[in-house]
Specification:
Length: 229
C-alpha cells in the first residue's frame, strides 16, 4: 500500500499508538552511545537538561504517549500534531491531558507565545517536511517558543534527498513510505544561526553531542539537544 505521509498516520492511528508503547523500551540498534538504548533515555535526558517543567511535544504522534507520561512525571506538557485523528485518540486515551493536546502544523507559525516552554521535543517529525520548510519555518518556530536557556531535542532521519521504503512494521500490510532525509551538520548550523548551542557530550554516562541509532526499518537517525542563547 502507498500513502501520502499524513494519510499514513490517519490510516494507522490506533496501530501507531500501540506501537509507540511496544517500542518505548526497545527498537534502537547500533547506538553510538552506551547510554542511548530507547525512547525513554531521550525523555529522561531532555527533562534533566530543561531549566523548568513546561514542555512541548511537537508532532506528538498517535495517542500522545510522551505528553501523558511526562504529565505523570509532574511536567506541564502540551502536544501538537498535524493529524486530527492522532490528537483525538490522545484525548480519548488520556482525558486528564485533553486540553493540552491540539492540532497544529509544524510547517506554519505555532499557536504559542515566544518563550512559552522550557523544553521542546521534536522526534521523527521533520522527515515529513521539505528541507526548506524545516529551515525557514519549523526550526525558527521551535526555538522561538523556548525560554532563554530552554532546550530543544531534535531527532530525525539522516542522509540526503528523499527516500521511499517498504515499512514491514505493519505486518501483512507492508506500507510504502517516503521520508525526507537530513544532513545533521546542516541542521545544527541552522540552529546555531538561530542562537542555539549544542549540548556537548559528557562522557559515557551522560547523553550529549551528536548521537546516532537505527530504528526497526532499519533507518539511521541522529538525535541531539541544543540550548537557546
Ligand atoms: C513518526 S511519528 C512520531 C511521533 C512521536 N513524535 C514519536 O516520536 O513517537 C511522526 C508524527 O509527525 C506528525 N507530523 C507530520 N507532519 C507534521 C506537521 N507538518 N506538523 C505537525 N505534525 C506532523 C505525524 O502526524 C506523526 O504523528
Amino acid at each position: 500500500m502507498k500513502f501520502e505521509s499524513l494519510d499514513f498516520y490517519r490510516e494507522y492511528t490506533l496501530r501507531n499508538s500501540e506501537l509507540s508503547y511496544e517500542f518505548s523500551h526497545s527498537v534502537y540498534t547500533d547506538c553510538s552511545h552506551p547510554g542511548l538504548r530507547y525512547d525513554m533515555d531521550l525523555l529522561r535526558r531532555v527533562t534533566e537538561l530543561a531549566p523548568g517543567t513546561r514542555g512541548l511535544d511537537a508532532g506528538c504522534g498517535a495517542g500522545a504517549r510522551d505528553v501523558h507520561l511526562l504529565h505523570t512525571w509532574g511536567f506541564d506538557v502540551s502536544g501538537i500534531d498535524a493529524v486530527d485523528e492522532n490528537i483525538i485518540l490522545g484525548q480519548k486515551l488520556h482525558p486528564e491531558i485533553a486540553d493540552k493536546l491540539e492540532v497544529a502544523d509544524l510547517g506554519k507559525p505555532l499557536p504559542f507565545d515566544d518563550a512559552t516552554f522550557d523544553f521542546v521535543m521534536c522526534n521523527a517529525v521533520i522527515q515529513h517536511l521539505p528541507t526548506e520548510t524545516t529551515e525557514r519555518i519549523t526550526l525558527p518556530e521551535l526555538t522561538r517558543v523556548l525560554t532563554p536557556d530552554g532546550v530543544l531535542q531534535l531527532m530525525f532521519k539522516i542522509g540526503s534527498g528523499v527516500v521511499t521504503i517498504l515499512d514491514r512494521t505493519y505486518g501483512f500490510d507492508s506500507v510504502e513510505r517516503t521520508f525526507q532525509l537530513y544532513d545533521e551538520h546542516m541542521i545544527l548550523k541552522v540552529l546555531e544561526d538561530l542562537g542555539c548551542s549544542l549540548v556537548p557530550s559528557a562522557g559515557r554516562h551522560e547523553l550529549g553531542g551528536l548521537l546516532y541509532f537505527n530504528d526497526a526499518k532499519p533507518m539511521r537517525y541522529c538525535v541531539f539537544w541544543v540550548r537557546t542563547g
